[in-house]
Write a structure and sequence with these properties.
2 domains; about 85% helix; about 130 residues; about 0% strand
């Protein structure tokens, strides 16, 4: 705003050319200072952002390495368990499965009682 008023004063003839040039140099120096401060701040922002990106890449690399280690440990543990218990599991899986043993025994006992009830050797039709 001051520059504009100085410019208007020079155009109207209120100040001479030397005073206007002095004002122009002061304004130019102020603008140059603003630009250098802005450039310094922008550089600091960019450096900070680069640091954030670097940290993020480092974290991703660490996580990838950690995941590889975890998978390796998991595979080793799984192989160890399979080696230790695999034969036992295979043995138990090879055993025949008895389905409803109580029901089968009860059905056989009922058949036995029916067959002895009709037997002429037992007078009362009951088993011993």
């Amino acid at each position: 705003m001051k520059y504009r008023s100085v410019k208007n004063s020079m155009l109207s003839g209120a100040i001479d050319k030397a005073a206007f040039e002095k004002a122009y140099k002061l304004v130019a120096a102020t603008i140059a200072r603003y630009r250098s401060e802005f450039a310094a701040r922008q550089k600091a922002i960019e450096e900070s952002w680069a640091l954030v990106l670097q940290r993020q890449k480092s974290a991703e690399k660490y996580m990838a390495q950690d995941m590889e280690k975890i998978e390796s440990i998991y595979e080793q543990t799984l192989a160890s368990l399979a080696d230790r218990y695999g034969k036992r599991i295979a043995y138990y899986q090879s055993l025949p499965t008895i389905v409803h043993a109580d029901k089968e025994l009860a059905a056989q006992a009922a058949n036995y009682l029916e067959s002895t009830a009709a037997c002429p050797l037992y007078e009362d039709g009951l088993a011993l």
